[in-house]
Amino acid sequence: MFKRYSENQINEALNDTPVVFVMGARQCGKSTLVKSIINDQWEYITFDDPIKLESAKFDPVGFIKNLSSKNIVLDEIQRLPELFVIIKQSVDENRAPGRFILTGSANALLLPQLSDSLAGRMESILLKPLSECEILGTQPGFLKAVFENNAPILKESGSRDYLLNRIITGCFPEPLQRPNAKRRTLWYKNYMNALILRDAQDLAQISHIKELNKLMHLICFYSAKLVNFSDIGAKIKLNHVTVQKYLSLLEQLFLVETLPAWHSNEYKRLVKAPKIHVADTGLISAIRGFTKESLIQNIKELGPLLESFVFNELKKQASWSAEHIDFYHYRDKDKVEIDLILENQLGDCVAIEIKASATVVGKDFNGIKKFKKIAGEKFKKGIVLYDGKEILHFGDMLLAIPISALWRLTSSDV
Asked: So what's the pLDDT on residue 208?
């Protein structure tokens, strides 16, 4: 079993918070992680069990009141969102920490009736699919290094073959353990169909479930691109309002994530449209039929796929960081683009461009240099992540860094 770095966050929350909500995509490892944390002082109940689900639906108040005196795990709580209000009542009667662990394959907190039902009583922890650090058992040091003044040091670089295999395989635990690409692809396709047919219907009454499935397939062609709701809707004959509604539902299921545009009150020539990223490149690869060989032959397709892979890896690492980090992309009306802008709580920024090539030249930093002038003293580093083996300097605070440094990095005073 993989060591999950969110475990410490859960244990810390259980020490001082009555309810801990572990949320994330179905099959990302929530139940496995929670079961590894609890002991015989806990009672584990899953609402994937139809008997438990029907019992709780029939009498939700009685269901909570009649639970044992043990601490309680309620798995897949999004299937019964009305329980949140009843759990609130139970917690108000007994505010002892660590009373409930809830898990959810959908962000139930986005439902209107739950917006403030457990405010101040619950801590939410997002569990994403496995990161490369967790798969390899390395400690995440990239984000800390790039926001510090220290120059990062790479002791060991990875191979292109490894990177391509990881992009194609993805980061969900189950397909990682399957023996070949055919079996992994079958898992992803079954996973997505089941998720949309079951969990989407739990959250909302969808009148066009086939169109929701088509939208998810189509989004796999838009990952790492600007969102144009009208353009997407035209391809599946849905209006832009319905596309926005369905896309929000896919976000609630942790299948996709929108990346907002970086903004500045002083600089007005910025494009405000968000980008979209699918939550796992293994899912994209399964739906689009990508193989390692096809990506080697088509570098144009590899670029956006690599961008989503890096985005997802950095988001996972940021979820463990003691310091909150916001993620943006940059695009202005002169069509200057930067794949990622990372901004910490002080407003300090790191600009990251992602390149599938094994070489880097000075012009690859043109967009970053423009952003450096706009950000001013808030600019900390400009980085081109590339498929090479060495860290290279391209001027003051400008570095080319191998992509493998994301999970193989240390820092130094160099």
From this structure: 67
Task: Check if the beta carbon of residue 336 is closer than 8 Å to that of residue 363.
Answer: no
Pairwise CA distance, residues 273 & 329, whole Å: 10
pLDDT of residue 4: 95
Residue 339 DSSP label: E
**Encoded tokens for 276:** 């979209």
Distances (CA, A) of 355 to 162, 260, 282, 307, 401: 16, 21, 19, 8, 10
- pLDDT tens readout for residues 262-303: 988 777 778 889 999 999 999 999 999 999 999 988 888 999
Q: Return all residues near 361 (Cβ < 8 A) that are at least 6 apart.
A: none
Average pLDDT of every residue of the chain? 89
State the Cα–Cα distance between residues 147 and 156, nearest whole angstrom.
21
Q: Distance between CA 291 and CA 281 in Å, rounded?
A: 12
Q: What is the per-residue pLDDT for 118?
A: 79
For residue 310, CA distances in Å to 12, 207, 229 come to 28, 35, 24
Domain positions in the chain: 7-126, 132-412
Please, which contacts does 360-368 make with residues 24 or more away whose CB atoms are closer than 8 Å?
360/384, 360/386, 360/388, 360/392, 360/394, 360/400, 362/394, 364/400, 365/394, 365/395, 365/398, 366/336, 367/330, 367/336, 367/337, 367/338, 368/338, 368/398
**Residues in a beta bridge with 153:** 410
Burial class (CB in 10 A: 0-12, 13-18, 19+), 129: buried
Superfamily (CATH H level) for 7-126: P-loop containing nucleotide triphosphate hydrolases (3.40.50.300)
Which residue type sits at 360? Answer: V
Q: What is the pLDDT of residues 152-191, one digit of tens each?
A: 666 666 678 889 999 999 999 999 999 888 999 999 999 9
How do 349-354 and 337-344 pair as beta strands?
antiparallel
The answer to whether 254 and 248 are in contact (CB under 8 A) is no
pLDDT tens across 275-286, in order?
999 999 999 999
Q: Residue 94 corresponds to which amino acid?
A: N
The Cα–Cα gap between 328 and 261 comes to 5
165 contacts: CB under 8 Å, gap ≥ 6: 292
Minimum mean pLDDT range among 138-152, 228-242, 250-264, 393-407: 138-152
DSSP class of 357: S
